[in-house]
Specification:
The chain is of the alpha/beta class. It is built from 10 helices and 14 strands.
Length: about 300
């Protein structure tokens, strides 16, 4: 069963094409990730699916409801956590939660079992104003408010942007727990390392979908030899590597550079050619989702 169905959706803002012919589906109970940089169209798609915008072309269904004709029904069965903190900063933690529960005609007590694993972490600060919370605590409060009416489908737009690494990890553990409870989750992120936590992912850029598969399936699409190269002078290595015959691309990647081998590339010749660089080292390396993304962007 499909929880979200998107068919040929396009949306423009004047001359800017935010989305162009986007189509994909999300299965019920799936944790699906939209992976892409700023400007890829992720937020625009979320606003369309949560009925805050109307598409220029195409159709979509959320929970079986049409995003234009059935917008009221969709708003009652989905939870939405936008990228920016959008709760009331002058209200306390407890007041925000009670307010959003009242909007949907429920009480905190009715849904406490669902939000408890998340809310308990900030409950000791329930009398603190939301605007005075740390980034990680704001994140947990926003997720609690999005879940308070027990939605079938949860939309999370770059929920971990601007929070520390520990809070990011905790947040994804929460999403895994929610998925186990049968909630369908569509989450967007610019962080490639978070993609592996999803059941399936869509790589997107400039309003287009470049590929959809499981994280492992995306990586298996990489059909080119890839090397990690290092030297004491990494900037000089980057400049010189790009001049060597057979090097399709070379780009910074963590503590090394990743080198994409093209036709005629020979690692021995490469080492000999750049032997004047102190500490030169080259070795084969397994590709990551980020390597696949970079390759698709170049295409």
């Amino acid at each position: 069963m499909e929880a979200i169905e998107i068919y040929d959706i396009s949306k423009s803002f004047g001359p800017v094409h935010a989305l162009e012919s986007v189509s994909f589906t999300v299965r019920a109970g799936e944790l699906f990730g939209l992976i892409g940089p700023d400007g890829a169209g992720k937020t625009t798609l979320f606003r369309l699916l949560t009925t805050l915008l109307i598409p220029d072309r195409g159709t979509a269904r959320v929970g079986g409801y049409d995003i234009v004709a059935d917008y009221r029904a969709i708003r009652s069965c989905v939870g939405y956590m936008p990228g920016r903190f959008s709760l009331y900063p002058d209200l306390t933690v407890e007041e925000n939660l009670n307010f959003f529960a009242a909007l949907f005609g429920v009480t905190v007590a009715q849904s406490y079992n669902l939000v408890a694993p998340i809310y308990r972490q900030i409950e000791p600060f329930k009398n603190r104003r939301a605007g005075k919370l740390s980034g990680g605590m704001k994140q947990k409060l926003a997720l609690s408010c999005a879940l308070i009416h027990r939605p079938q489908i949860l939309f999370l737009d770059e929920p971990t942007t601007g929070v520390d690494a520990v809070s990011r990890s905790e947040f994804w553990n929460m999403l895994s727990d929610l998925r186990q409870r049968g909630i369908t989750i569509l989450v967007s992120t610019p962080y490639m390392d978070e993609a592996s936590r999803c059941d399936r992912i869509a790589l997107c850029n400039e309003g287009r979908i470049m590929g959809i598969d499981t994280p492992r399936g995306i990586v298996h699409q990489y059909d080119t030899e890839l090397y990690a190269v290092r030297a004491h002078n990494m900037y000089a290595l980057l400049e010189e590597a790009r001049k060597v015959e057979g090097v399709d691309a070379c780009y910074p990647f963590g503590e090394a550079h990743h080198l994409v081998a093209g036709l005629g590339f020979d690692s021995g010749h490469f080492a000999e050619r750049l032997g004047f660089l102190d500490g030169l080292h080259i070795e084969p390396v397994a590709p990551t989702i980020e390597d696949v993304f970079i390759k698709l962007m170049k295409r």
